[in-house]
Design goal:
Helix content is about 45%, strand content about 15%. The chain contains 11 helices and 7 strands. It has a 5-stranded parallel beta sheet with strand order 2-3-6-1-7, with helices on both faces. β4 and β5 form a beta hairpin. The longest helix has 18 residues.
Amino acid sequence: MYEAFYQLREKPFSILPDPDLIYWGRMHTMAFTMLEFGMMNNAGFTVITGEIGSGKTTLVRHLLKRIDTSITAGLISNSPQDREELLQWILMSFQQPFDGTYPTLFKRLQDFLYGQYAGGRRAMLIIDEAQNLGSEALEHLRMLSNINADKYQILQLILVGQPQLRDLLLAPQLRQFAQRISSDFHLRPLSEDDVARYIDFRLRAVGAKRPLFTVEACTAIAKASGGIPRMINILCDTALVYGFAGGSNAISAKLVGEVIADKQQYSIFPIKHVVASR
C-alpha cells in the first residue's frame, strides 16, 4: 500500500519472522551467540527465553539457515504433554514414522539417534513455545537426553519460550533438568536508543534512502512498544499507513500519537498493557 509512496521495495515491518531482517543489537547478538555456542559445543540443553514478540522464533529460523550439514535438526512448535505424544512429535520432526505404542516409539527414536551417530551425524531438537510444556514432558526430555553413545551426547535439545519457562525450570521437581542446562540467555526488550536504530535498520534494509521517522516519533514508539520488536513493527507499519493516507513525507510524533490513541481505543492490539506512563 505505502511502499511506492515511501520508495520502499517491500514492507519493512512485517510481524512474520524474517531471518534476513534481524537487527543485531546486543540482546539479539548475545542470544544468537548462546544458541551457536550450544550447537557447536554439543550442549545437552540450551534455553532461550524472552517476552512474546521479542524475536526468539526469528533467531531460531536464522540458526536453522546456518546449521552445520553434519546436524539433523528437528523443530517442534506446539506443546505435547504426555510422554507418548512427545515422542510422536519428536519422531515427526525428524521425519520418522510416529505410529505405535510407547515402547515402539522409544525404540524407533533410539535406533534413529544411534543411526545418526554411526553415520557421523548428530541430532538437534528445537522446541519453540516450550513454556507450554508440562513438568512431565520436561522430565521426559531429560530422560531422553540420557540416550548417549559412550561419552557422546547424541541428542541435543534447545528450548525456546516465554519467561514462564524460566519459572517452570526453577521448580524443585525439575532440579535435575536445570542442572543439565549448559547454555541459556534471556532476551530483554530493546532500549530506547536501540528502538531508533532498529527502525532505521528495517527501513534501510528495504531501500529507504532517508529517515522516515523523526527522533521524537521513535521515542514515542519506544515507550508505547516497551521495546518489543513485534510491537514496534505493528506501530511502525500502522504509522506508515497513516502517513501514506495523509500524504506525510515523514512520520512525526504527532502522527504516532494518533496511531497509539486509535490502537488503545479501537484495536485489539494490547498497547494499553505496555504504554509507559507519561
